[in-house]
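1st attempt posting a full record on here, be nice pls
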Amino acid sequence: MTLDMRMTRRLPGTPEEAFDAYTDAEKQKIWFSILDEEPGIVEIEVDLRVGGRQTAVWGPSPELLFRETQTFLEIDRPHRLVTESTGSSPDGATLTTRIEITFEEHEGGTLMTVVQSGFPAPELRDFFVGEVWSGAFDRIEAYLTRERDRERSHG
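the predicted structure (as tokens):
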């Protein structure tokens, strides 16, 4: 039996802006470390097509790198994205899960909902809820807020 998790966050911006922030390599490189006091290593490549892959390598130093490869199974920009994700931590542990993300317009912003399935243990699922996705949402929100503020000051 495997475990699932589901999280939703309201983000500033349109579904298109949120989808692109999540899938565009150059935008990801910005938000991955937007809240870090000291920038670490962030390398991301994206081939955004069904069957294509996104590869991300990140961490505080070359000795402590996390790696994730997502294979795109479904892409319906800007509404839905489904991937199979295989990640590894610096200690060599690996995890493969399925991630379904939806982006829905909601009260002038976007509801981004993540459903991730395939966790082998509750502790791992809870880590993804408490750390991985809450951190990703915080970073994407900070990026979209900064972009919106930048547009207002230049518009």
